Amino acid sequence: MCTRYISPEAGDIERHWHIGARTPQPWPRDMFPRYAGPFIRAARDSAEYRRELVVGQWALVPWFAKSAKLSYPTCNARSEELQAKASYKLPWARGQRCIIPALAFFEPNWESGKHVPWRFARSDGTPWGLAGLWNTWVDKSTGEVVESYTMLTLNADTHPLMKRMHKPDPRLGPEQQDKRSVVPIEPEDVDTWLTAPVEQAAQLVRLAPVGAFEAHPSA
C-alpha cells in the first residue's frame, strides 16, 4: 500500500491535465493519509464533459460513515475488492473515478532486513496520474460537505520491481505475499478512466511496466 506521495503544484497540475485556472484551496506537497490533497474528476456541475480539480481528504469517507474521521484506513483500495467492499462498491459502480496527481510516491524496501524507503518517479520526468475513487459525504448533523478519495492498488507479486517492496511474510511463498502497487493511468487514457462504463474502465487497472519507473532509495 502507498501511504506517502509528493503532490505537484496547482499550476503544474492544471497545465499537464488541461484543467484551466480554477484552483481550489491550497494543499501540502508532501501527502500522507487524511491530509487534504488534489484529485481530478469529471466536473459535476457541467452539462458538457470537462475535468475539474478538487481538494479532498486522502481517505475515502463512505456513505454509511458516522464521521469523516474513520477508525479504519481507506487511503488505499484493493482493486480486486472494488465490487464487493462496502466502502468502495458504490463509488466504483457509479463511476466515481479520479486521477491523483503525484510527482513521486514512496514504498518500503526490506531486502536489507531494515525499512529503507524508496522513491518512485516516472522515467520520462512527467507526473504520475494514479487511479483513484472519490466520494462526497455530508455530515447529517451539521450539513458539512466532505470530499474524499482513495488510491487504487493492485497485486504486484510477479512484478519485477514492485514485488521487491514491503516487508515479506516468511510464512508465505513469493507469489502469495500480496505485494501491492499503485495503478498509473496514462495521459491518453484519462478521459476513458473518468467517463467510460465500469467494464471499460476496469481494463485500465493494470501494473505499469518496469521501464516506466525511475526508482531508488530515498534515504
Please supply descriptive tags for the structure shown above.
219 residues; hypothetical protein yedk fold; mainly beta; 11% helix
User: Kindly state the mean pLDDT as a whole number?
Assistant: 95
First-last Cα distance: 19 Å
Low-pLDDT regions = none
- CATH fold node name: hypothetical protein yedk fold
Describe the overall structure.
With 219 residues, this protein is mainly beta. It has four helices and twelve strands. It has one domain (5-217): SOS response associated peptidase-like (hypothetical protein yedk fold, Alpha-Beta Complex), CATH 3.90.1680. Strands 3, 4, 5, 6, 9, 10 and 11 form a seven-stranded mixed beta sheet that branches. Strands 2-1-7-8-12 form a five-stranded antiparallel beta sheet, with no helix packed on it. Strand 3 and strand 4 form a beta hairpin. The longest helix has 7 residues, at 10-16. The two termini are 19 Å apart.
What's a quick, concise take on this entry?
The chain is mostly beta strands. It is built from 4 helices and 12 strands, in the order E-H-E-E-E-E-H-E-E-E-E-E-E-H-H-E.
